[in-house]
Design a protein that fits this description.
Elements: H1 3-16, E1 20-25, E2 43-49, H2 58-68, H3 70-73, E3 79-85
């Protein structure tokens, strides 16, 4: 697991105490594209399920996550595909 992936995992775990957290580095599929770094860890797919999202809209959930990951999104993370679920919701 890379340094940025580990940072994402730690920040999301601390902020949301998720029941489920999946982080997939999808950078290899974007090699040569804008924002793709030579070392990878620039494009991610994240799925998390947390009670903190209950009662929030999809947009609100995304904003919550973006706030927690603001530093990474301003720098090394070029693209983030996010699925944020409340317990009991399906993908």
């Amino acid at each position: 697991m890379g340094r940025i992936t580990e940072t994402l995992r730690k920040k999301l775990s601390a902020a949301f105490a998720p029941e489920m957290l999946e982080i997939q580095d999808d950078s290899a599929r974007h090699a040569g594209h804008s924002g793709a770094g030579p070392d990878g860890e620039s494009h991610f797919n994240i799925t998390l399920c947390a009670g903190a999202f209950a009662g929030h809209t999809r947009v609100s959930r995304q904003r919550m996550v973006y706030k927690v990951l603001a530093e990474e999104l301003a720098g090394p993370v070029h693209a983030l595909s996010l699925t944020a679920l409340a317990p009991g919701e399906g993908r």
